[in-house]
Amino acid sequence: MKKLLGSLLIMALQLCALPLGAQQPFLSEPHWTLMRDESSGVAPYETVRILARLHRVPGTPEFDQAAEVIAKRAVESGLSGVSAEQFPIDGKIAYGLMRSHLGWTAGAASLWQIVPDHRLLADASSEPIRLADYSHSADLEAPLVDVGTGTQESDYAGKDVKGKIVLADGVLAIVQRLAVMTHGAAGIVSDMPNQTTAWSGLDPSIVRWGHLDASLPAGFAFMVSRATAQGLRAQLSSGQSLRLSAHVVAEIGPGHWTVVSAVIPGSDATAGEVVFSCHLDHQRPGANDNASGCATILESGRLLARLIGQGRLAPPKRTLRFIWGPEVEGTMAYLSRHDDVRRALAADIHMDMVGGDLFKDKAVLHVTETPWSLPSFVTDLGEQLAQAIKQGAARYTEEGGDPAAAVLEASGTRNGFFVDRTPYAEGSDHDDYDSSTIAVPSLYLRDWPDINIHTDHDTLDQLDATKLRRVALLGAAAGYSLANLDASQAPILLPWLAAKAEQRLAASFERAQTLLEGTDQAAWFEARNLMHQALQREQAALAAFGRISGTSPADLTGVQQGVAQQAAAFTLWLDRLAHAKGAVGAEPGAPWAQDPAAAAVPQRIGAFGPLTYQNDDVLLDRLGRARLGKITLLDGGGSRLLRVQDQGALYAYEIVNFVDGRRSVGEIRDAVAAEFGPIPLAVVADYLAACAEAKVIAWR
User: Fold this and answer.
1) Which of 176, 386, 489, 685 has its CA 20 to 30 A from that of 407?
2) Could you tell me the CATH number of the domain that includes residue 155?
3) Strand, helix or coil at 584?
4) What HEC string does 180-241 produce?
5) Kind of pairing between the strands at 365-368 and 319-324
6) 89 lies in some domain
7) Pair (629, 491) in one structural domain
8) Following DSSP, what letter does each residue of 576-623 receive, concatenated?
9) pLDDT averaged over consecutive 10-residue blocks of the chain (700 residues)?
10) How many structural domains compose the chain?
11) Residues 599, 664 contacting (CB under 8 angstroms)
12) Looking at residue 102, what is its pLDDT?
């Protein structure tokens, strides 16, 4: 068995290195070529052109217009069962663990400076981004007062803002609570920064998207550029009095979210489904974020539907489902209503910003891993297909090779394909799918950075039609591969996946070595824990392949044993290194071993879903702002690691995901420590205690 396993692993490693046919072992060369040649970058580019004309705020009439566009395009693309469903929202209705938001209808809105001179500062009819989401109606003339960030009481010391308009660059919802609700200001002018990158602030003409708290009964905000705000501040600091005229027609109240869905039917109704997801909302223009993802999953569906309809591809075994809705909120609403779909889903392909031109948007496409709480082979699949496109593009750009293999679009660039694999990152609908109570592993495709995200500069001309075509091909190939995966592919795929697992174990070993510091027993424990958790992750990913493919446990055993042997060798080397540095004993004990809190075992209770959403924070809702502020993990005060890397939200997401009714607090601590870095047990226990107060978990 060992000799056979060794031969298979060598074969798999050789296969991983092949320059040609790199889409294998998941997809045959003929199938790849069919999809490649049918794919288009023009089709998604033109869909983005239409969507980018609409201010697609959830729960608004223009979002519904965007949904109509998608539904019509889906029918034209040959998808079946196209449906546009409405989900009521009123700030109280819950979808799973998520509380719904409110609807918003905005009409005319303008902001003028009338003293000392008369000039237009913002007009939402021509640029909807200028009016912050969930602004209330207003019609007034009032002085402008500079309050700095406007997010702390000291910003208002000695300033009378009652009935006036404040100029602030802090988080809008916080400014609204302090300036409007506490100190009586009428409204806000904001140049609040967000989504900061290395390029932030270099272009002072950018106007950013802002959001007020819809649950608050008053306040409006106009967004201006940094250059405009600096000019206003300069006038105020010189002693000039500025008077503004604000006019807003808007209404906040009950409404609905609209979610569009469609399918390519599978041949086996019992085999489950693979979902393509995106988010249809965001500000106008919102070309890359996320009209690009919406248009690109549509193109993936179009090319597959056409090839299947022509008989050139066989229908997939599993149904392919496509969903377009408000970010995160639409996913939770749809899965709440369609429990049968939620339970049938085997995998998710999620696209959120996938068309940015590297040299304009600075946008690199990332194939993003699932979290360690949900190990899966889907990332390996996505990475392999991305590398196939990358290699073809590189040969063409460097050597003038086969243009077909480069997957070019005539109206796009001839650039290489800038794509890599990155660890789990939060911030889109994949957070829902990957969460433990839904547990649908996501192949998350995303651009980052994107220097124009959430701004008026996120325009169509920042996109590359060639990149859209490549990502559409990647998505279609991944979806079709997942939809047809079965046990017959195990003899080739299992050793290939095992080779990938061993590569990651080697990378974990390198990381584990950096944790060893002299004779520190705790550091030795952390290094060993990392290897242990990494092995658990790889074993679970192989088991996940077995479940979706129908591979027998017996066929998995030999491969899993080989991976375990490699992990054992790495652990032995760590022990030798620790002993060489002066550590003593056969193995180190857990630093938390004597802490009574470590033995407690939590289990999830109540509705499904993670704890944070676009407009809802479950702990904030259930515990209140004062209690939330005392949770060590969320304020970053638990350790230097949390403060420096700002990882609190990631730890929080995974801590709850690892709650399964079997793991103790100590074991959960070890799981997240391996994934993100060592963390004190007390910080994990404190967060879980808050979750118990909020009735998200219960103690066994």
Assistant:
1) 489
2) 3.50.30.30
3) coil
4) HHHCCCCEEEECCCCCCCCCCCCCCCCCECCECCCCCCCCCEEECCHHHHHHHHHHHHCCCC
5) unpaired
6) yes
7) no
8) HHHHHTT--SSSPPPTTTT-GGGG--EEE-SS-S-SB-SS-BHHHHHH
9) 43 44 84 97 98 97 98 98 98 97 96 97 97 98 98 97 98 97 98 87 94 96 98 97 98 98 97 98 97 98 98 98 98 98 98 97 97 98 97 93 93 97 96 98 97 96 98 98 96 96 98 88 96 98 97 94 97 96 92 95 96 93 94 66 60 97 98 97 98 97
10) 4
11) yes
12) 96
Residue from 245, 246, 253 nearest 138 by CA: 246
Place of tokens 């390198």: 510
Q: Three-state DSSP class for 320?
A: strand
388 dihedral zone (left: phi>0; alpha: psi -120 to 50; beta): alpha
- Nearest Cα neighbor of 379 from 434, 298, 322, 429 is 434
DSSP label at 359? H
For residues 166 and 129, membership in a common domain is answered with: yes
CA atoms within 13 A on the CB side of 612: 15
Residue with tokens 């192989």: 542
Q: Are residues 89 and 60 in the same domain?
A: yes
SS3 529: helix
Residue 5 lies in a domain: no
Burial category of 317 from C-beta neighbours within 10 Å (exposed 0-12, middle 13-18, buried 19 and up): middle
Please name the amino acid found at residue 461: D
Amino acid letter at 208?
Answer: R
H helices present in 17-158, as ranges: 29-38, 42-51, 61-76
CB 32 within 8 A of CB 474: no
C-beta of residue 445 within 8 angstroms of C-beta of residue 471: yes
d(CA 104, CA 344): 34
Distance CA 676, CA 679 (A): 9
Q: Kindly report the length of the chain.
A: 700
- Give dist(CA 264, CA 313) in Å, integer: 12
- Residue 518's pLDDT is what? 72
Select from 545, 580, 615 the last residue of a domain: 580
pLDDT at 549: 96
In terms of domains, do 529 and 410 share one? no
The answer to whether 449 and 362 have CB atoms below 8 angstroms apart is yes
- Map tokens 């071993």 to a residue: 593
Last-in-domain residue among 439, 460, 484: 484
Q: How far apart are CA 420 and CA 433, in angstroms?
A: 22
* 646/613 same-domain check: yes
CATH number for 410: 3.40.630.10
Residue 443 tokens read as 């192949």
For 15, the token pair is: 């296969």
Domain range for 635 = 596-699
Residue 232 tokens read as 């206003």
Query: Do 385 and 281 share a domain, yes or no?
Result: yes
315 and 453 assigned to the same domain: yes
